[in-house]
Design brief:
Number of helices: 6
Family: Belongs to the UPF0735 family.
CATH superfamily of the largest domain: ACT domain
Strand order of the largest sheet: 2-3-1-4
Strand content: 15-25%
Protein name: UPF0735 ACT domain-containing protein B5M42_18980
InterPro entries: ACT-like_dom_sf, ACT_dom, UPF0735_ACT_dom-cont
Structural class: alpha+beta
Number of strands: 4
Largest sheet: 4 strands, antiparallel
CATH architecture of the largest domain: 2-Layer Sandwich
Distance between the termini: 26 Å
Radius of gyration: 22 Å
Order of helices and strands: HHHHEHEEHE
CATH topology of the largest domain: Alpha-Beta Plaits
Length: 150
């Protein structure tokens, strides 16, 4: 690629990818999981040449890897009672969410607004489950996703 060209990406169905590209992805997954220790072992196991592996290795990534750092911003209204925020944070941790920031307003008329930024990259598709479980928490009046991105 020329220095002044911008990289372009495409979303392609797996079944139309060339075999060498798919085997490269399989070899990379073996290496990432620690199932093999060397590139030589990985390519031998999947039936791929080392030259093909090196040709494609930096160009193929599973979509989940590209979307790895998913940050969701959630706004919640909490009753001003001891332990409610602690339970919310524990629930997020139980679902493999990682709280990055917390902003809480001073409680007015018995309610406080809390805005959390949560790294959901390890949660998979459980963001909907997180919202459902948050909304079921005693003392939590409202939970809404107000932002999402990486």
């Amino acid at each position: 690629m020329k220095p002044d060209e911008q990289e372009r990406y495409y979303l392609i169905r797996e079944d139309i990818l060339p075999e060498g590209v798919l085997k490269t992805l399989q070899a990379k997954e073996l290496l990432a999981r620690g199932a093999v220790k060397t590139v030589h072992e990985a390519v031998e196991l999947v039936g791929l040449s080392r030259s093909a592996f090196y040709k494609y290795k930096d160009a193929i990534h599973p979509l989940s890897k590209l979307d790895r750092e998913r940050i969701v911003t959630i706004s919640m209204d909490l009753e001003h009672r001891a332990g409610i925020l602690s339970r919310v944070l524990a629930l997020i941790a139980d679902l493999d969410g990682n709280v990055l920031t917390i902003h809480q307003t001073i409680p007015l008329q018995g309610m406080a607004n809390v805005v959390l930024s949560v790294d959901t990259s390890l949660m998979g598709e459980r963001i909907g489950d997180l919202l459902d479980r948050l909304r079921a928490q005693e003392g939590l009046r409202r939970a809404v996703v107000i932002g999402q991105g990486g």
